[in-house]
User: Fold this.
Amino acid sequence: RESLRVFTVRRVFRILPPLAVAIAVVWVLDLQAGTHRPWSDYLYGLSLMGYFTVPQIVVLGVAWTLVIEIIFYILMAAVSPLLKLSHPAVGVAVATAVPLTVILCARSFGGSFFLFAASVAYLPVLLIGSALYLHKTANASALSVSVLILANCASFMLGLRSIHTAFLPLNNSYLLSLAYAGAIFMVCVGLSAPRALRWVGDVSYSLYLLHGTLGFFVVQVALSLGMGLASPWVATVLCLGASYAMYRAVERPAIALGKRLAA
Assistant:
């Protein structure tokens, strides 16, 4: 429904301001711990480009999944004219060919491209969700949706075989976790969530950005104070509180600003 300009502006203001605050939290905790990084590292963290350098420059550990999300948004923006046709499944089909091509060429263009391909290899999972969404909202035929799902399943498995090889052995729970996630998604999609889960969903982006750095810091402090097994619970409560504060003070104003500028 959105134009390319509106799509871009709204997502920039949705993603970057909370990310900037999370990077600032890392900076403060680095100062407290006596960790010295060059300023360029924090800029790499904000731009997420550090995930494609050799060696990688990782400032915010959890942000590797945010890289995947942003690549997915760029891909959707690129095929957006096709998504607006009478048969938007064509756009998803073209998008499906992109990760397959990147995976096949993963080792052909150096280390940075391989790291890029390692992120792109997760896109088929998101494209499966896109195909299911089309079936629900755009009256895409069951046949076209089935073909798209099978193609992306094959592309994802190819990525595991050629890039993320550690996930394939039977003693790794990755595929089992993926199966559980897919099953839960299929059962829950379209259902209304309990109020508590809706609240967690509202603050989930801030919680995602903060829980690793702030959560582990609080656990360490709580352990040093002798809180023992209560430490992770203290960290959970404080992270939820900090996430709510960040949601109200940063996320919501930035989203509102993005909507105004897009309009």
